[in-house]
Structure formats: structure tokens, C-alpha cells
């Protein structure tokens, strides 16, 4: 049974910027790992372990609902939405693509991938009709994308070959993101690169990055972009949580070249990064298993604002409110600027 602790203030480990944090409130406690969030109808929606999917009302956290999408103990690390439905894909094979009606939370499987190598790391909607799901490659090392177009899921045809040992991380559903012109995909492992799809021409380009890489646990875990020019990539090595060398990089030329930022001067391994709405890339929040950090200068320098552990993902609710999720909890932070 869920244990709900609404309005529990948890000012744990707040460091620099503490004078700017008004509250940090846990609105859901449950036995669940959450790595994907969506916002809709003043609610935070989540998918997670044990086939769980649900929401918590941000204005009234006591109003919440949870359903199980399967009798199997599936692990969901993806979640996305269009106007009428949510979509979630479990990791591991067989991969089931669930479609969940926003009105009554009825759901069905609309596509499945039974390949033994199926492992979906990210799911992203470019617009209300067009979406991509990104899986680890099959034995041929070819980039594997499922594409939702004209209401149907099908395999995206491309000629991108990943390097041996190059894969991706199902860490926060954010190693794939889009701008008006491009879809961006970040890889990791033996190689950590940026794959850029031109949404108009359907052409792919591949760019190297200086992010730490070479081991299966290393590379980019999350990316975000402001328009087409400015982007940020974060990650590191999940087996070395405190390692903070070459784990943050930014681009100002459409992802063609990347520059390392704050090497040796950040809080370490990071699973999620998100640009603050309206800041044009200047203000950025990031989350790792052992920290929440903030940059106010386009990712050049970072300050840890909390060392609370166990968060993997977050979403900006507005310019002063961020909702976090991770191991067994969802929390809301109010910031004052």
C-alpha cells in the first residue's frame, strides 16, 4: 500500500542558494523507482517500476491515482504525451508500447518489439502527431528507432551504425530531445556521440563529443537544447558518483562541436539536465543520484543547491517551481529568484 506524506518539508542538505529555496515538499512516497515525468492538467504524471503509472495533483497532493499497466512487473523508464494520450514503453524484451487515455486512464498495447536486444532508453514527441522511441542497437549495431507517424508505429529507416560498445542510458528519458529543426540523440558507453536528425530532410549527422567515455558506464545521460544553436549534455560514470571530470559539455553551433564546462568543479555524475523556461539557456538545473545543482551562466559554473539523494529526473512546473522524482518519492521545490 502506498504511504502518502503530503506537505512534508524536507530541507535536507541544502547548501549554497539556500536563501533562495522557499520549500522542498514531498508529495508522494511509494515503493517505486521513477525516471520519467510529464506535466498535464496541473498534475505530475509518472511511470516507474512494478508496472506503475499514475499522477499527483500539484495543487492538492492528496488527490492522486495510480494504476498498474500490466500484471507483469515491468520497468518503465519512459513517458510521453500527445493531446489525448500518454505513452510508456518498458525496458527489456519484449518491449510493449502502452497508450493510456487521458480521460479515463484506460490503456492498451499498440505496438511491441520482441527482439531479444530490445531495450528502450527514451520516448519523445516532436509534436502531437510525430514521435520517436530509441532502443539499444541489435547485433548489427544499426541505430534502432521506432517512429510514430500517421498514427502507426514503425521502424525508422536509417543507415547510422553505432560503434562497438556504443549504446545509451535509460536514466531519465532525456537522451533524446527535439527543437524546431532537429531531433537530437545522445549515446554513451564505449563511445558518446550526438546523433542529429534533420526533421525536414530526414538526414542524419553524427558528431563526436569530449564527454568522458570508453567504459560501459560512461558517457552522456541527458541533453537539452534552447532552439537549435545552444545545447547542453551531462553525464559521467554511474559507478563513480563523485567523479566530475569531463562530464558536462555545451554547444553553440547546432551540436557540431562541444566544449567541456566545469570539469572538476561540479557535483559529479548527473542523470538529468533541463534549461529553465524563458532563460534562453542561461539558467539550468541538473539532477544526479546524490545532488541537485544549478547554473546561471549557460552551464559554465555550477552550484550544488541540495545533496538530497535518490532523485533521477525533474520538470520545471513554472519559472519558480520544479518537481523531482526518483527512488520512492516525488517532491516539489519552490525557488525564489
General description of the model:
By secondary structure, the chain is mainly beta. Helices cover 0% and strands 51% of the residues. The chain has no helices and 29 strands. It is globular, with a radius of gyration of 19 Å. It starts with 7 loop residues before the first strand and ends with a strand.
**Cα-atom Rg, whole angstroms?**
19 Å
Would you tell me the structural class of the helices and strands? mainly beta
Residue-averaged pLDDT: 93
The geometry reads as globular
Q: Summarize the main sheet.
A: 7 strands, antiparallel
Q: What proportion of the residues form beta strands (DSSP E)?
A: over 45%
Order of helices and strands: EEEEEEEEEEEEEEEEEEEEEEEEEEEEE
First-last Cα distance: 38 Å
Share in helix: under 10%
Figure out the total of helices.
Answer: 0
Question: How many beta strands in the DSSP annotation?
Answer: 29
Question: What low-confidence regions span 5 or more consecutive residues with pLDDT below 50?
Answer: 1-19
Amino acid at each position: 500500500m502506498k504511504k502518502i506524506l503530503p506537505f512534508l518539508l524536507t530541507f535536507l542538505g541544502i547548501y549554497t542558494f539556500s536563501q533562495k529555496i522557499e520549500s522542498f515538499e514531498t508529495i508522494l512516497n511509494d515503493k517505486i523507482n521513477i525516471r520519467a515525468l510529464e506535466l498535464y492538467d496541473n498534475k505530475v504524471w509518472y511511470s516507474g517500476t512494478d508496472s506503475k503509472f499514475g499522477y499527483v495533483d500539484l495543487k492538492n497532493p492528496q488527490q492522486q491515482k495510480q494504476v498498474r499497466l500490466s500484471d507483469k512487473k515491468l520497468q518503465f523508464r519512459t513517458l510521453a504525451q500527445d493531446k489525448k494520450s500518454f505513452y510508456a514503453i518498458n525496458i527489456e524484451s519484449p518491449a510493449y508500447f502502452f497508450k493510456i487515455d487521458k480521460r479515463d486512464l484506460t490503456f492498451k498495447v499498440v505496438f511491441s518489439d520482441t527482439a531479444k536486444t530490445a531495450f528502450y532508453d527514451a520516448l519523445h514527441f516532436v509534436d502531437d502527431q510525430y514521435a520517436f522511441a530509441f532502443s539499444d542497437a541489435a547485433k548489427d549495431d544499426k541505430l534502432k528507432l521506432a517512429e510514430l507517424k500517421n498514427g502507426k508505429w514503425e521502424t525508422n529507416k536509417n543507415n547510422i551504425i553505432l560503434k562497438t560498445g556504443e549504446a545509451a542510458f535509460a536514466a531519465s528519458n532525456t537522451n533524446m530531445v527535439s527543437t524546431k529543426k532537429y531531433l537530437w540523440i545522445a549515446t554513451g558507453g564505449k563511445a558518446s556521440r550526438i546523433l542529429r536528425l534533420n526533421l525536414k530532410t530526414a538526414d542524419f549527422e553524427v558528431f563526436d563529443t569530449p564527454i568522458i567515455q570508453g567504459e560501459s558506464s560512461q558517457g552522456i545521460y541527458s541533453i537539452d537544447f534552447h532552439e537549435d544553436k545552444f545545447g547542453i549534455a551531462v553525464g559521467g560514470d554511474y559507478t563513480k558518483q563523485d567523479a566530475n571530470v569531463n562530464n558536462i559539455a555545451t554547444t553553440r553551433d547546432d551540436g557540431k562541436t562541444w566544449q567541456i564546462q566545469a570539469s572538476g568543479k561540479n557535483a559529479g555524475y548527473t542523470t538529468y539536465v533541463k534549461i529553465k523556461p524563458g532563460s534562453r539557456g542561461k539558467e539550468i538545473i541538473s539532477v544526479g543520484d546524490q545532488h541537485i545543482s544549478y547554473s546561471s551562466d549557460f552551464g559554465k559554473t555550477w552550484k550544488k543547491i541540495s545533496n538530497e539523494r535518490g532523485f533521477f529526473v525533474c520538470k520545471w512546473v513554472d519559472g519558480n517551481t520544479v518537481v523531482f522524482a526518483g527512488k520512492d518519492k516525488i517532491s516539489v521545490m519552490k525557488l525564489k529568484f
